[in-house]
Amino acid sequence: MPTPLDRALHQRTPLFAFAAIVTGVAAWSIWGSDIFPSQDPGGDPETWTHEQCTTWLRNRNLHPSPLATTAELLERVKANMRTPRN
C-alpha cells in the first residue's frame, strides 16, 4: 500500500518544483548577490538626487532619515564613502 510520500514522489510536478527550489538556493549560495547586483547610483555624489542618496545609504544599512535634507544626506554619503587607493 503506497504511502502519501510515495504518491507525492510518483507525481512529477512536486518533484520538479522541489528540485527547482533546491537548485535556486544552491545557485544563490554559490554566486551570492552577484546574480542580482544592487542598483547603486554611480558617478559624483555631488550630482545625485535626494532619492539616489537615500538609496545609497539604505543599501549600506545606514538608515537614512526621511526628514533629512539632500545636503545632510550628501554629507553622510561622503563621510561613509571609501577613499580611493593609490
Give a quick summary of the entry:
With 86 residues, this protein is mainly α. It has helices at 4-10, 12-31, 50-59, 70-80. The N and C termini lie far apart (72 Å).
List keywords for this structure.
mainly alpha, 86 residues, transmembrane, single chain
**Structure classification:** mainly alpha
Residue share in helix: 55-70%
How many domains, in number, for the residues?
1
Question: Termini, distance in Å?
Answer: 72 Å
Low-confidence parts: none
Task: Give a short account of the largest sheet.
Answer: none
Q: Quote the average pLDDT.
A: 85
C-alpha-based Rg, rounded: 23 Å
Shape: elongated
| Count of alpha/pi helices | 4
Number of strands: 0
Order of helices and strands: HHHH
- Residue share in β-strands: under 5%
